Amino acid sequence: MVGALKGGFVDRWIMAKGRTRTHAPLKLAVMRILGIESSCDETGVALVETTGSALPRLLSHALFSQIEMHQAYGGVVPELASRDHIRRVLPLTRQVLAEAGATLAEIDVVAYTRGPGLAGALLVGSGVACALAAALGKPVLGVHHLEGHLLSPFLSADPPEFPFIALLVSGGHTQLMRVDGVGRYDLLGETIDDAAGEAFDKSAKLMGLPYPGGPGLSRLAEQGNPAAYKLPRPLLHSGDLDFSFAGLKTAVLTQSQKIGPAAHTEGAPERADLAASTQAAIVEVLVKKSMTALKTTGTKRLVVAGGVGANRELRAQLNAACAKSQVRVHYPELHLCTDNGAMIAMAAAMRLQAGVQTAQAVYSFDVKPRWPLQELTPV
Hints:
Elements: H1 2-6, H2 9-16, E1 20-21, E2 30-37, E3 42-51, E4 57-65, H3 67-71, H4 78-100, E5 109-115, H5 119-136, E6 140-144, H6 145-151, E7 164-169, E8 174-181, E9 184-190, H7 196-206, H8 213-221, H9 246-259, H10 269-297, E10 301-305, H11 312-324, E11 328-330, H12 341-354, E12 361-362
Parallel strand pairs: 2-5, 5-6, 7-10, 10-11
Antiparallel strand pairs: 1-12, 2-3, 3-4, 7-8, 8-9
């Protein structure tokens, strides 16, 4: 297997580039899909297996985070991210196959993140996926990154059922959607400026917390008083389901200037109070808008996905609000909240099972760095 990865599949890819092999639609009793995620600063690879109409099963997955590398720059450096994906993706693929007890020959489809994301990073994953599929003579399937997040709770021990309201909340996206099935998504509201994850990260940076700031701010908030500072809740009473967090970031900046050096001093209670107040403002908006979406649509099931979905306070408040309204709420497993290959393989498997997309042996790949989820169409 290692030899197959090292010794020549790229050469065979060069020979096959741009060529289309015709495959009949996959109708296998058992199908294995390899998923590759490389949209930003995490390299993920996973293998899932489908059996008939049952939910796909995760056989193994591996993830490498570039956080430590980007910390020195205070944020993601796209060129460095792309280069690191190149270094990591093949070793992670070997690891996943070994842990699953599988071989390259047993892969039926190679899936990859087509977008949205950093163009260079996406090209690494798509290039490797198409090269590997060409060498194996297997079809490929490009997956929407946000659909991966959206369907990731189906990997959990308590998978949801359709229909549901989805709160997609991450570093780059904050959206509410009604989901009636795989590929059937109705956008209800989204952020008009900064996403919730950006608000966490940018506010954390104002407090002198290291990259990535969001998780650090949440940990610091546990030591503070969420009512210490009165911060705005943008668009909380707007009458629609859109979000806005840019104004909150400005309010945090203003408040930190009023506090003075203590806002950036480790161990200062004012700093913890500011973190707690910031988190409280973000969480209140997310919870209120989510509950409004459930009420207006009459839906009794909520799915929360994306990196911010791991936030403890958000989960606690959503759990309480949903219990009060007799609504079921579902989350991905904590280790699958961030970008990962499992969600890409899972989304590909579910699209194939639902018949909304076919995997094709077309190796002249392209990527879509900007790709709204509502533009996702059956292929």
